[in-house]
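Translate structure to sequence.
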């Protein structure tokens, strides 16, 4: 089907739906910003902790899906192609969490969050190459300013040096690329699939992928103490159900680029959490960079619609 015909056949969200989606995405950004705390408070290997998170959230979704007759019917009626897209999205998400947890454990919380936030660069590039979004001068400037602020925050003393921090920074960039793939697939699938069914398939796939990776790794899946199960459960509730699930839901109403730009506010919140609860003092460049990120987000959101993107 030609692109213009597909666009005409897809109902466009109303202004009220967009405003509600924007408000909920800001709430999700708040909840997701706490993930680094749970990672730091655990002591299980990153791969195991990522598996815990996705196993718990998948189990929490079981009643919502199988307790609803309409959702069960929707799941049974999904086309093979849709299921394959969900499996791909879940695989992207699994690798994202694994590399994200590695990043948090090998560099500063702020640098990790900011580098994961470069997801917007991958999303914007993919959307532009696919011809699905156009960016005016000011919306492009907003993305550039936000990314500049992100790099300024990430450039902490030793943050780009050799050793563990370099590994953590590289993991953050890879996590951003994987999250971009996950977001782009979500935008495609969420048009015709309910959020409950989509998130169950994606989270379930990521749980299977991560658990399989653990089984083929030197690590055990159990034996790390109750604190790690608790952290995995809290991440499942606050970061997945109240965070990523809202992001998935919003793709039906908002551009994935817009959502990715809004996520760039996460490092600002994560820096505050790290200061208050982990005693990680932000450097001056991190404070300035956070302000620059906020400016970039403002420019992008203010001028996005005017650019026709």
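Result:
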């Amino acid at each position: 089907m030609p692109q213009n015909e597909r666009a005409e056949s897809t109902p466009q969200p109303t202004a009220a739906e967009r405003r509600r989606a924007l408000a909920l995405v800001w709430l999700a950004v708040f909840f997701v910003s706490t993930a680094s705390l749970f990672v730091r408070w655990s002591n299980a290997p990153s791969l195991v902790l990522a598996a815990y998170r996705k196993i718990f959230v998948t189990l929490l979704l079981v009643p919502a899906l199988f307790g609803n007759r309409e959702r069960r019917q929707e799941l049974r009626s999904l086309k093979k192609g849709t299921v394959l897209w969900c499996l791909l999205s879940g695989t992207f998400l699994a690798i994202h969490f694994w590399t994200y947890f590695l990043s948090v454990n090998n560099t500063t919380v702020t640098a990790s969050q900011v580098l994961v936030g470069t997801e917007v660069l991958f999303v914007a590039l993919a959307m532009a190459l696919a011809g699905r979004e156009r960016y005016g001068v000011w919306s492009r400037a907003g993305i550039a300013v936000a990314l500049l602020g992100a790099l300024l925050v990430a450039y902490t003393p030793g943050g780009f040096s050799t050793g563990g921090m370099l590994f953590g920074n590289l993991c953050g960039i890879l996590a951003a690329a994987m999250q971009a793939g996950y977001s782009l697939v979500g935008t495609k699938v969420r048009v015709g699939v309910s959020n409950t069914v989509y998130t169950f398939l994606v989270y379930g796939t990521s749980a299977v992928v991560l658990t399989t990776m653990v089984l083929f790794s030197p690590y055990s899946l159990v034996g790390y103490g109750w604190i790690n199960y608790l952290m995995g459960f809290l991440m499942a509730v606050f970061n997945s159900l109240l965070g990523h699930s809202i992001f998935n839901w919003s793709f039906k109403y908002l551009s994935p680029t817009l959502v990715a730009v809004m996520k760039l506010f996460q490092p600002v919140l994560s820096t505050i959490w790290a200061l208050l609860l982990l005693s990680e003092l932000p450097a001056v460049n991190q404070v300035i960079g956070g302000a620059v990120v906020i400016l970039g987000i403002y420019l992008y959101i203010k001028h996005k619609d005017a650019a026709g993107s």
